[in-house]
Amino acid sequence: MNVLHVIANPRPAETSTSKKLAFEFFAALTEKNPDVVVNNIDLYQAKPPYVSAEALNYFWGPVANPSYIPTKAEETAANFSNNNAQTLMDADVLVLTMPVWLNSMPAILKAWLDQLLVPGKMFTFGAEGIVPTHHLRTVVLLVSSDQVYKEGDVRDGLTPAIRAIFAYIGVEDIQIAWADGQDASRHFDSNERREMAIEAAKEIAEDIAGLA
Ligand SMILES: Cc1cc2nc3c(=O)[nH]c(=O)nc-3n(C[C@H](O)[C@H](O)[C@H](O)COP(=O)(O)O)c2cc1C
After folding, report:
1. SS3 of 80, please?
2. Cys-Cys link to 61, which of 9, 32, 68, 79 (CB 3.0-4.6 A)?
């Protein structure tokens, strides 16, 4: 089983709750299933560019016109996508480690998704619409936030976006371990909340370890 771990958090591991969740998640996963192959991508070490007009032509040109031939500039604009899509296409499980920023995902993660969830990579178009061309079965969110709210709350703009984005390419199984209330100066129970999220992350890892 291939697990792709994408880290969308610039903070060092020592001070990051979401990275603590990730540490515990992968410790539990690899203990239960030592055969799992884990690829780590730190987006702050290899930043995805924003999608340009040339990249859009490269991705969507063939959809509108099957005999489309990209220009040199369009090909260059698609370099990030061309160089990075295969790792995601090969993954069975995608783990996204991130803080909540402005009620949603950090922009760097959205930029990465914009580059890779494009026609010709994660899907193509058939007569009936989207045809997935990946193996992804599950997306795991390891999330940390300061305020006390999580998925299901009206302030949560993160999980509805992730669910909609992955449903588009046929992935409905979204697992979430979310440590909220992490501002210890305002929430006396921030440690307990973190521990609960760590337990949730370990449970998800154990379930995933058992996947064929
Ligand atoms: C730019 C920015 C925006 C943030 N927006 C929110 C937010 O909308 N809701 C929230 O609960 N916390 C918000 N926070 C707080 C972080 O989510 C919180 O500190 C989180 O624990 C950081 O994760 P980490 O410890 O893994 O780095 C924000 C922090 C930053 C820096």
Report:
1. helix
2. 68
CB 84 within 8 A of CB 42: no
* Three-class secondary structure of residue 24 per DSSP: helix
From the CA of 105, how far away is ligand 1's center (Å)?
Answer: 10
Domain that includes residue 72, residue range: 2-209
**106 CA to centre of ligand 1 in angstroms:** 9
Report the pocket of ligand 1 as residue ranges, CB < 6 Å.
9, 11, 16-19, 99-103, 144-147, 182
CATH number at residue 91: 3.40.50.360
Q: Please answer whether residues 11 and 43 qualify as being in contact, where contact means their C-beta atoms are separated by less than 8 angstroms.
A: no
Alpha-carbon dihedral sign for residues 148, 152, 29, 136 = negative
For β-strands 37-42 and 129-132, DSSP reports them as unpaired
pLDDT tens column, 37-77: 999 999 999 999 999 999 999 999 999 898 999 999 999 99
Q: What domain count does the chain have?
A: 1
Task: Provide the pLDDT confidence category of residue 212 given band limits of 50, 70 and 90.
Answer: low
For residue 144, list its beta bridge partners: 99, 179
